[in-house]
Amino acid sequence: MAFHKIDWDQWERAEYFRYYKDCIKTHYNLTLRLDVTALRRELDKRGLKFYPAFVWAVMKAVNSHKEFRMAVDGEGNLGWYDECHPGYTVLHRDTGTFSDLWSEYSPSFRAFYGNMTGDMEKYGQVHRLKGKPGCPPNFCSLSCVPWLDFTGYGCDTYGDSEMYFPVILFGRYRQEGQALTLPFNIWVHHAVADGWHIHLLVDTLQQLLAEPESWLDN
Questions:
Q1: Residues of the domain holding 218
Q2: Which residues are catalytic?
């Protein structure tokens, strides 16, 4: 779990970071629709679950761009981790509450699929906010609302928060012509990522969703 401290004299975003952290303290979020037609088709062929497959694709995209792996370490240093693990939600239908779980990320989809499905089976019925103990500091928060389609979403954290990982929400997919799409929202701290970086992440993610044959069996 390597952490790389920022060299403030060399970092290209140093001025931008200070501006958006200390001056106007800006967070922002963006909602768009992602095409999951190919992914759903290939998962059905293999008898695999959508939730862990989509979470893996999101985390592969997140781990491909260091702007979405930024954090402050225990000594107050800003930097980035080599990789992040997903923290995600599961619903308890008997109480209407949810739990946060986390699973170890792996570049191997099959390894990650086993991690996440195993964690959901083991901890999915733990009726606590944090269902699985031991969440590492390098995690990215994801939530799914599969019963709800939406066109926009807004959230915020305390203005002086030093949380720089993105917060991601996705919802129910629907048929649009020949395509199956779902709403995808990402919240970021403007100090570490601009619209350009969102574009890079979304392009990476949509390519993964369009070519699931390249990773589902790995």
A1: 30-73+82-176+211-218
A2: 190
Question: Which pTM value belongs to this model?
Answer: 0.96
Summarised one tens digit per residue, pLDDT across range 74-90 is 999 999 999 999 999 99
CA distance 172 to 174: 7
CATH number at residue 45: 3.30.559.10
Answer for the pair 66, 52: CB distance below 8 angstroms, yes or no: no
194 is a domain residue: no
Per-residue confidence band for 156, with pLDDT thresholds at 50, 70 and 90: low
Closest CA to 53 of 112, 10, 9: 112
Residue 111: C-alpha distances to residues 53, 107, 114, 122 (Å): 11, 8, 5, 16
Contact status, residue 137 vs residue 71, Cβ threshold 8 Å: yes
3-state secondary structure of 71: strand
Which pLDDT score is estimated for 198? 97
Structure tokens at 137: 């500091």
Domain assignment of residue 119, yes or no: yes
- Domain presence at residue 164: yes
Residue identified by tokens 């926009």 is 152
Residue 19 belongs to a domain? no
Structure tokens at 103: 């699973």
Structural domains of the chain, count: 1
Residue 161, pLDDT score: 75
Residue 1 has what pLDDT? 73
